[in-house]
Amino acid sequence: xxxxxxxxxxxxxxxxxxxxxxxxxxxxxxxxxxxxxxxxxxxxxxxxxxxxxxxxxxxxxxxxxxxxxxxxxxxxxxxxxxxxxxxxxxxxxxxxxxxxxxxxxxxxxxxxxxxxxxxxxxxxxxxxxxxxxxxxxxxxxxxxxxxxxxxxxxxxxxxxxxxxxxxxxxxxxxxxxxxxxxxxxxxxxxxxxxxxxxxxxxxxxxxxxxxxxxxxxxxxxxxxxxxxxxxxxxxxxxxxxxxxxxxxxxxxxxxxxxxxxxxxxxxxxxxxxxxxxxxxxxxxxxxxxxxxxxxxxxxxxxxxxxxxxxxxxxxxxxxxxxxxxxxxxxx
Length: 331
Ligand code: NAD
Ligand code: TDX
Known about the structure:
seven-stranded parallel sheet; two-stranded parallel sheet; 11 helices
């Protein structure tokens, strides 16, 4: 297939490009990426001569129309993705996540091209710590932040275009990803690079919030399973039973980096901070036969720590600016 990968210079998109070239070399790839603060062409440098890279926005209708018109499928990762940023300035979240997805939908509708829309478990809101339930594709939408509400809006647009216009599209809602090439504004890479830069890690509030961690390659293998076998109009939840609270994750990072267990600071909590996410991925496992490969979080995290240790040239230039922004928020 000729794949158009939006947001391919971001964390999950870049890993998707690497994974696809490694595991499914029969596909050709065009990346469309606006190279916002979160996009980094260096993440694609090792495969630059094997893909086409187009610098532009998913909200540019003429460009999107041209690129979709010469593709067999679109895998739509491009988004503004950071909750904290959405609390400071929601505007780009509306443009990229809502208008950008609408623009993609109109092009796939016109050209009859298959769409896979990448979304998040945050559209379902949050769970109590002791709630035995997990999110399924039947859980009602209840997003909390400007980020998650724009992702929820984009999912609903995809569903409406399937029902009203008969486009061929699937949606996946995945839990928190970790792995190489993740922007250092995010929790795990922020704490790893804090230690590597001689700064103290920063935990929001009491650190009791639970996230359901999955390795980025497991997310991307699931996306391939859906591209190959998923049914149009269906939503698949992606997760690998990786629930941990933020304190536990930070303890493991400190241990892997040889730091004392109390070598971190508590900082101001995130406004409206979701308490817990948990995914029931049985539909994906049972219907499509998918299973995760990275079942040992400690091993996956250790490899991620090593990647940041070995790739300071990738993150070093960003560090001061990211931390200055957090410091201004008391975080
Ligand atoms: P990211 O912020 O690392 O990357 C986003 C990429 O999109 C960047 O390369 C950026 O330049 C690009 N982009 C932003 N606006 C654009 C625009 N208007 N046009 C074209 N490109 C644009 O994000 P990520 O963590 O890789 O997330 C990718 C997708 O996966 C998002 O849709 C996100 O909602 C979803 N998701 C992320 C996670 C996670 O844990 N990171 C979990 C579930 C779902
Ligand atoms: O410095 C920090 N300290 C801290 O305690 C940061 C940056 C975060 N946190 C906490 C907040 C969350 O409880 O860690 C947890 C994870 O935070 P983020 O990495 O910002 O992720 P989250 O808000 O959970 O959202 C992520 O997963 C779902 C992605 O950024 C989203 O794009 C995805 O949809």
